[in-house]
Amino acid sequence: MDFPVPLTKEILSGISRIDQHRGLWSAGNPVSTSRLVSLAEAARTQSTAAACRLSGLRISDNEVAGILSGDTLRTADDRRVKGYAAALGTRFASPTRPLRSADFAMLHALALTDPYADRPSEWRSVSLVREAFDASGHATGRVFSTLSPRQLEPQMRALTRWLDRELEHPSRHPIPAIATFTLGLLAASPFETGNGRVMFLTMGHLLQRAGYQHIPYASLELQIEDLRDEYQASFDAAQTRFWCGDASVEPWIEFFVKALDRHREKVDIKIALEQRTHAFPPLQQAILETIREHGTVGAGLLLQATGANRNTLKDNLRRLVDRGVLRKHGERRGTLYRLAPPDPARGEEHQD
Predict the structure, then answer these.
(1) What is the pLDDT of residues 236-245, one digit of tens each?
(2) Which residues of the chain are under the pLDDT cut of 50?
(3) pLDDT at 343
């Protein structure tokens, strides 16, 4: 099995930016370990919610946060939310040993069957046609064919061996190889349900295994959700004839690199904000922490989260808006606040 991997100027440019970012992180953590833990927790909630919505589940970030903070799992959807979050944090295959197809079946078991699973899922034994969903959770009418059950075991083993060779080859770059593998994984759809979610998990784990340490600190799944139409169109264009060996994988790799580059930008913004807010007064730090966790918030949630009185909160919000740290949208009771991007003119980009 072999796949010609095109490297266009656009793809190479995106990879160059991402690799420069990897180099900065390899020099050491840009902020304290405790702050990285908080960033990872917020990203885990966003990633879980986005992955579930992309699979057709109608759920908000706040609903996911509630499920993850609770001990009771009332529905199958609750278990899958908890399972996806658990699979995000699981210890994946060590880079010191070859990958196995069972590694990806184990991710499925954690995410879709049991957050405490100790054995991998079985490949599906029935035929499957995948559906695409819109932002409201409704099927779009776009469907994708998949491998037959008897093809799954040999093709998944062959695809995993191909990936291992690519990642070990000194002249191959890991990003196009990981992109091509995830395309094949979704084209095969080796499980009865949850194939998209397993593919998202696989992206993150393989990138971290390849040395991209910044992956957990912003949500890659959220970038894919924001690019939902491009995600579905690029998969549709690239998966045709994938298993015949003459597929055009370029649309998918271009999409993959674009999503990863957007993710890099989000991490940069988060880190820049951390670096410029460490000296803020405690109330302003609490305000920023709440907005970091929830994205866009109103005064009601901030009052509840900080315990400040309304006038004090209003004054501190005004100061943060005036300093360019927050952006204000709307008026009066409809006013919402969100983080402002860093201003490069003031030297607020990511520094090592």
Answers:
(1) 999 888 888 7
(2) 344-352
(3) 56
Residue 114 backbone dihedrals phi, psi, to 5 degrees: -160, 120
CATH (domain of 298):
1.10.10.10
pLDDT attached to residue 334: 81
d(C-alpha 19, C-alpha 218), whole Å = 17
DSSP 3-state percent helix, strand, coil across the chain (nearest 5): 60, 5, 30
Domain that holds residue 339: 280-346
Domain containing 169 — which CATH number? 1.10.3290.10
254 occurs within a structural domain:
yes
Tokens of 313: 């909160």
Residues 265 and 297 in one domain: no
- What's the pTM? 0.81
Enumerate long-range contacts of 210-214, CB under 8 Å, 24 or more apart: 210/95, 210/167, 210/174, 210/175, 210/178, 211/22, 211/26, 211/174, 212/18, 212/22, 212/25, 213/22, 213/25, 213/26, 214/21, 214/22, 214/25, 214/264, 214/267
What is the three-class DSSP state of 328?
strand
Contact of 46 with 222, CB cutoff 8 Å: yes
Of 322, 304, 275, 79, give the one whose Cα is nearest residue 313: 304
Domain-ending residue, one of 252, 273, 294: 273
Same-domain status, 223 and 260: yes
Domain count, the chain: 2
Nearest to 137 by CA among 57, 232, 59, 200: 57
Q: Is residue 59 located within the same domain as residue 129? A: yes
Burial of 169 (0-12, 13-18, 19+ CB in 10 A): exposed
* pLDDT for res 143: 81
